[in-house]
UniProtKB/TrEMBL annotation:
One of its GO terms (cellular component) is ATP-binding cassette (ABC) transporter complex. It comes from Aureimonas glaciei. One of its GO terms (molecular function) is transmembrane transporter activity. It holds the Pfam family OpuAC. Keywords: Signal. Residues 29-311 form the ABC-type glycine betaine transport system substrate-binding domain. This is ABC transporter substrate-binding protein.
Length: 333
């Protein structure tokens, strides 16, 4: 909390003069990192269009990923904007760079944060109101029969090679899943995990397993996240929950994944209006989930999806900008 407060004060000091300035100023060039996952790709395209058409910036997208983008921003001052930076995994490094004045916190991109946990279909949750937490589900393997062996319950794991595979496996061990009659299903890939949810929905069958937001799947299928049976314990997370070979995990909880826009100090120097936009703009998981579901259904790219959002949801994005900027963006659409 002290780190977050310090970061907030620094952000306020750099962004403080942004006020109500809009598109009248000369914004100059601005590079935006288009991260290689769907929600970040779409948000980058939205920022590019609004900064270009609304604020007169010469905005362009550059390919990026979390750590390479952060390193480039802090060492080279480029790109100028990282719209969706998931900061939990290296918060200390980010806060150190903010303290040194190399980067600045902008808006919280996901206002309710990224979500991780174990989920069940909402139709199943409504049929079984007694299943409210992970422990409730793990007490009833008979409600989640495995397709391979119906005498066992099934918990669908995170894909192989992903960090969440380790934490999900440790959660399964902490809840004594095998002893209680469950098997941990290896889904093989993100597509395999998505497919297991789609198949369950098509047949209105039970499903229990790991998932996260924002994603197209949670925009397409109504899922209910199970409650945790404890609060997040950071020390236990570092000791065992996130360590693959730890033999004795304890029951833990996922914490909210904080997702921020990161910018270089140059942004505020170039355009107070653009700086104000980048410290204001943010959206919820519900909005992003549904937008990503549209993207997947239409097989659209990030730019097409950004245009669809700007055209169909002005009630959301016009709150991010002054009225004169909003009119310029609408005219460009």
């Amino acid at each position: 909390m002290k780190k977050l407060l310090a970061s907030t004060i620094l952000t306020a000091s750099i962004f403080g003069f942004a006020g109500s300035a809009s598109a009248a100023e000369d914004c100059g060039t601005m590079t935006i990192s288009a991260m290689n996952w769907a929600s970040a790709e779409v948000l980058a395209s939205i920022d590019e269009f609004i900064l270009d058409k609304g604020y007169g910036c010469d905005a362009s997208l550059v390919p990026g990923d979390t750590m390479p983008t952060f390193a480039s921003m802090t060492e080279k001052g480029q790109p100028d904007v990282a719209p969706e930076m998931w900061v939990n995994q290296f918060r200390d490094q980010i806060d150190a760079a903010v303290k040194d004045g190399r980067v600045v916190y902008g808006a919280e991109s996901l206002t309710d944060g990224g979500e991780e946990g174990w989920w069940i279909p909402t139709y199943f949750a409504e049929a079984h109101p007694e299943i409210k937490t992970i422990q409730d589900a793990m007490d009833h393997p008979e409600l989640f029969p495995s397709s391979e062996d119906p005498s066992k319950g099934a918990v669908y794991n995170c894909p192989s090679g992903w960090g969440c595979q380790i934490t999900t496996t440790q959660f399964f061990k902490a809840y004594e899943g095998e002893k209680k009659g469950f098997v941990l299903v290896d889904t093989g890939s993100g597509a395999g995990l998505d497919g297991s949810i789609a198949k369950a929905y098509e047949n209105k069958q039970p499903w229990l397993g790991y998932y996260w937001a924002p994603t197209a799947v949670l925009g397409k299928y109504d899922m209910t996240k199970l409650g945790f049976d404890t609060t997040f314990d950071e020390a236990e997370w570092k000791r065992c929950t996130s360590v693959a070979d730890c033999p004795d995990p304890k029951i833990n909880a996922w914490t909210k994944s904080e997702v921020f826009t990161m910018v270089t100090p140059k942004v505020a120097e170039s355009s107070s209006g653009a700086a104000e936009y980048l410290k204001t703009r943010g959206w919820s998981n519900d909005i992003v989930n549904k937008l990503l579901a549209w993207k997947e259904d239409k097989q659209a790219n990030g730019e097409d999806t950004a245009m669809h959002f700007l055209e169909s949801q002005p009630d959301v994005w016009t709150k991010w900008v002054p009225a004169d900027v909003a009119e310029k963006v609408k005219a460009a659409l």
